[in-house]
UniProtKB/TrEMBL annotation:
This is Diguanylate cyclase. PROSITE patterns: GGDEF, PAC. Its main location: membrane. Residues 381-434 form the PAC domain. It comes from Lyngbya confervoides BDU141951.
């Protein structure tokens, strides 16, 4: 209510334009005045009033009310009688209240979005403004006209129908043009400049069809539907609504003159019949424009998602390749291209069968049917770390993990293979083996020397124990390095995969709850773009360490899941406990106070958290838990980020 009377929101010149527009369009509406009854079923100012409310705000009602009063005084013999003095405010207020209610209901239902952006929002606009909004005027105006003796009670029902059709007609025809022009006029002007000849041809055809149908009375009016559809596809929602209003204006003019196929005994009857046809065109235009806008937005979102996914895959330190049923490569990220680049004399560089891999253990070429790609296409889930690829004199040991991709019928359509350079792992294993061998030799030597005397034996036994401790520590440190993320110094994805399988089996045996949290740094790509990758790495380190400090139980695990995404595994934790951890975690991230000007949810770095909680059972598997956590994380992002969602 406060917003309704906030007249400072609307400049005086806008109120003046609203009043002038109301008066001028009211004058145009007199062309549809029935000379017998003095009643018009085509009151264009109603469509203008609703359109101005949408683009300038609710307080513009004052200008439209002033314009309505002026129109009543000028066009309907002034306020010369007591009946006119009573009737004028009743008509004015019932109309404007209906317009305000329709606009308010629509804005509330579509959450202030552009009404042609989604088909369901367009339906809300039509229902609220064309069906519900005019109800007040439909009841009050005919009732007042009959009570005050302007019309007989026998015409009451006819007045109700005529009033409702007239209000709905102008709102569904004129209002969309005002809103779409305000919203997308630059887009329409650009489209016209790009295809002027097509626009001129469309205009000429529209004028020709309108002339034949509405000025000469030939039954070809439905050809205008095809032209409006053409305009919607090629010139957007502004072009479609503009053409629709132009055809409507010609149709009304021809019908009033009695030249249209819709001409009847009276002007009112003719226009009521015409409005039914125009309403069909208008609803078709609005619905089609909404569907086209929705499809265009979906294409844009899909393109953005694909670009983001490509960037994400190219940033991975592992290779990812996707192959069709024939083994041809459908996609490979940058690391896969680097690791698997085929030789220059390969017959088909996009086919997996020409990829030359070797068996490390046998130093032989791996047959095509034994390649990870074709094994996955055969339905096998595999993990092979006995592969090697050769680039000149360079030998690169590889680990390949292949997974078949199934359609909804369970048929294999393609396969995805993850490639990882395990040179560092092999090198560390070799170092560990050499170190172990050296220690064994030293222990043997010491043992032989200690056989001479008991004193020497005691000293050598102590030395052996110290050496064994050093060996155990070295093994632990090496194992820690294998399972440790090099940047954040927390557990890596490999460690997480091993632990979650082990905890799932343990929880299933004990029938104890298991919770999993996936958290993602909000708008991290923007952070990298704004502050640089070095600052991005530092941000990830701080987030990881904050999470590690929050999760303190020995059995809990904080791991880097990939990129800016982290995973927290909480054994023996129910949903209430997981929510408590999420609350502490969000507070810890907020306490870091890392500035993030590129975020849309906060000026500081925030995280979105997805929480999944399951009691492992025979009819569930581990992928269910991970999928639920991923879906919860997706929902947290969809709801606006900087929050947690539990499933």
């Amino acid at each position: 209510m406060r917003q309704l009377f906030n007249f400072r929101q609307i400049p005086l010149w806008q109120q003046a334009i609203a009043a002038a527009a109301y008066v001028s369009t009211g004058y145009v509406s007199l062309f549809a005045l029935d000379p017998v009854s003095g009643f018009t079923v085509l009151w264009i100012p109603s469509g203008v009033s609703v359109g101005l409310i949408y683009i300038w705000g609710y307080p513009i009602w004052l200008g439209t009310v002033i314009g309505n009063v002026i129109a009543q005084i000028i066009f309907f013999n002034g306020l010369s009688t007591v009946t006119d003095v009573v009737l004028t405010p009743v008509i004015v207020m019932s109309l404007i209240i209906g317009h305000l209610l329709g606009a308010y209901w629509t804005a509330h239902l579509i959450q202030n979005r552009y009404f042609l952006g989604r088909a369901k929002d367009t339906i809300c606009f039509i229902v609220c403004n064309c069906l519900l909004g005019p109800c007040l005027a439909v009841v009050i105006v005919p009732l007042s006209l009959c009570l005050l003796g302007k019309f007989s009670w026998e015409l009451y029902l006819s007045l109700v129908i005529t009033t409702w059709i007239g209000e709905a007609f102008v709102i569904v025809t004129v209002t969309p043009l005002i809103i779409t022009w305000h919203q997308n006029a630059p887009v329409f002007q650009r489209l016209v400049r790009q295809q002027p000849l097509e626009g001129l041809l469309l205009l000429c055809l529209a004028l020709t069809v309108s002339q034949i149908a509405f000025m000469q009375g030939y039954p070809v009016a439905y050809l205008s539907v095809t032209l409006i559809i053409w305009a919607a596809f090629r010139f957007g929602d502004v072009g479609a609504t503009l053409l629709m209003v132009g055809i409507t204006a010609i149709a009304v003019l021809g019908t009033v003159r009695g030249q249209s196929t819709f001409a009847q005994d009276s002007v009112n009857s003719s226009l009521v019949l015409l409005q039914s046809f125009i309403a069909f065109i208008s609803l078709t235009t609005l619905t089609l424009s909404a569907v086209l806008n929705e499809n265009e937005r979906a294409k844009t979102d899909l393109k953005s998602t694909n670009a983001m996914l490509t960037q994400f895959l190219n940033a991975l330190p592992i290779g990812v390749s996707v192959h069709n049923q024939q083994g041809h490569t459908l996609y490979s990220n940058a690391m896969a291209e680097q690791l698997l680049r085929p030789s220059s004399n390969a017959q088909n560089r996009q086919s997996a069968q020409y990829l030359t891999l070797y068996r490390q253990s046998a130093n032989t070429i791996c047959p095509p049917e034994h390649l990870p790609t074709f094994r996955a296409l055969a339905g096998e889930h595999l993990l092979d770390d006995d592969l090697e690829i050769r680039h000149g004199d360079q030998l690169i040991p590889l680990e390949a993990q292949g997974t078949p991709i199934l359609d909804e019928r369970g048929r294999i359509t393609s396969a995805i293979v993850v490639w990882q350079d395990i040179s560092d792992r092999k090198r560390m294993a070799a170092i560990l083996a050499d170190y172990t061998h050296e220690l064994e030799l030293e222990v043997t030597q010491r043992t032989q020397e200690l056989a001479h005397t008991n004193e020497q034996l005691c000293r050598e036994i102590q030395e052996r124990e110290r050496t064994q401790q050093a060996l155990d520590q070295a093994i632990q440190e090496l194992q820690k390095l294998i399972n440790l993320d090099g940047l954040t110094q927390i557990a890596n994805r490999r460690c997480f995969d091993e632990r979650i399988h082990r905890e799932w089996q343990r929880a299933a045996t004990r029938r104890s709850p298991l919770s999993l949290m996936l958290l993602d740094v909000d708008y991290f790509k923007r952070y990298n773009d704004l502050y640089g990758h070095q600052a991005g790495d530092e941000c990830l380190i701080q987030v990881a360490q904050a999470a590690a400090q929050v999760v303190k139980r020995p059995d809990d695990l904080v791991a880097r899941y990939g990129g800016e995404e982290f995973a927290i595994l909480l054994p023996d934790t129910d949903l209430k406990g997981a929510l408590a951890v999420a609350q502490r975690l969000q507070q810890a991230i907020e306490d870091l106070a890392i500035a993030h000007r590129g975020s849309e949810v906060s000026q500081r770095v925030t995280v979105s958290i997805g929480i999944a909680h399951l009691l492992p059972q025979a009819d569930k598997n581990l992928s269910t838990l991970i999928h639920l956590a991923d879906q919860a994380l997706y929902e947290a992002k969809r709801l606006g980020r900087n929050q947690y969602v539990a499933l």
